[in-house]
């Protein structure tokens, strides 16, 4: 069995603030180590559940967070940015299951630690067809395009509950309970890792019965931005339409194209900041 892990950082045990997850901040060195250990817990659980090959894609910020020298030797690491498929770089139809570790809730979610969707500064909402999606939803849809189901999600209780609403079969491991956006009651890291490892094993034991998230094709992706200038820039992409001063839409032939247009718009939106 082959497992793809998309590893984010905000959903790591103990994280409640940007100061803990941004490389230029003093607390970051501690929390990148805790992030690495949670990914290792997911790897250990996956191996116990029957995984033979594991690819980890570092999916947070610069995508250079995980300490490769401390990563479990049976996993391979994709790191660095930019990557065309960003948080899902490396996914293809050879995988049997996807894990989302350290994930957080979508932009605009109440009581979600550091809630955002791909960019805190730029994105208000992303809609894929009729679904409002956060990172978990958008990334699960791309995995679904390759017919790979999401088997595990870890993060705060709001994030994993939101993911489970979209993917009812997913194994959800909640390791902290938000108190608003910037505070939480968390398991101690050792206990969080125990839960993640056990969750990963359970997830893989059920992996064969999981259904990938298959969205209709074609489908429209709608991107709502913080500022109108961001929507202005997205209009540079042929085929985009302005459905609201802050929102652009694009009718994509499939999820893969919708994902690419979203990534391109994120780059354009960032250029206005
Ligand atoms: Zn992140």
From TrEMBL:
Zn(2+) 2 binds at residues 8, 60, 104, 135. CDD domains: DAP_dppA_1. It comes from the Bacteria. The active site is at residue 116. GO terms for molecular function: metal ion binding. Coiled coil: none annotated. Zn(2+) 1 binds at residues 8, 10. Keywords: Metal-binding, Zinc. This is Peptidase M55. It comes from Candidatus Segetimicrobium genomatis.
